Amino acid sequence: MMDQETQIKIQAFLDGELAENEARKITALIARDREAAALHAELKNTRRALAGAEQGITLPESRDFYWSKIRRQIEQLDQSSQLQSVPAAPSFWESVNRLLKPVSALAIVVLLGMMVFNLTGSDSGSDLLVASSDMDTITFRDDSDDTTFVWFADKPENDVANVGDDTTLN
Amino acid sequence: MLNESSYSSVDDKALVQLAQKGDMLAFEELVARHRDKIYARAYSMMRNEEEAIDLSQEAWVKAWQRLVQFQGESSFATWLTRITINLCLDQIRKNKRQRSESIEEMDEESGGVERQMEPVTFNPTERLERGELRARIDEAMKKLSHEHRTVLVLCEFEEMEYKEIAKVMGCSIGTIMSRLFYARRRLAALLADLKRKDTP
Description:
The structure holds two protein chains of two kinds. By secondary structure, chain A is mainly α.
């Protein structure tokens, strides 16, 4: 019984896949060994039987029917690829959102501007009064004269203290 | 654009060039010319009429989509056949994932009893009519597993080298040689067995 490697080599020889020196060895083996020759003949016969076996196979559908299915698929694919390439029209809410974004940004900028403007107090002659909770403190600023007056007054601790006596200055 | 009737007189190369520019009639002519060959290759691999029709049509659709990539290094028919083979291989892999591997298949992979079988002396080409031989091969091919049939188709019909088959099927050259050997021996045995069954 031939070993597996020799069997595979006989097949490779038949398929023209052996190197020249290996092919010579197999040719010699086939010439002297009956089993190798028989295997070679069997493989060769099978190859010969298969040659042209596909020629008898024909499409079991008419040309037009077969083509119509292909064309339909191609057209569907073309349509879907066109749809993907054309951007979809924006919806109503998308349009509103798109319009509102710059308006909102502008409104924020205006508000911030107003706040900064108010804090810097560019208004001449305005008074700024600040009251402290720990002690009665009143601040007066006159921008026109560029002067600030601060009054400090003791906070009444109990009912005994004079109510409304704001004449004490510290 | 050509007249509808003149497409049949144009060679494949010119038809491909027209189809690459979007000429659907040129592509239709290519389908008409090669549809049997493409279907036959799909059928040889799948051994199922419906699957072979679907896969061959899918191959044509893929060919249309990739037509701009076709540079003409091989013939259009060869290029299209390779697309068909790849689609069939994908389908075989999908089918295989769906069914569990049987003991018979594992036995086939290792070579089974055919390796120890005495050589078959029956010569089918000498003993049978062409039509009869074709029918018997058809029957015998159905009995092979997808893997063995595929390797046989790629080697015998597509005339691919072992290393090409290994690349396409994603396995080693050794596996291809082993599968091919098994497939041929089993086919020889099946043809001989069919002959014995018919003999009174």
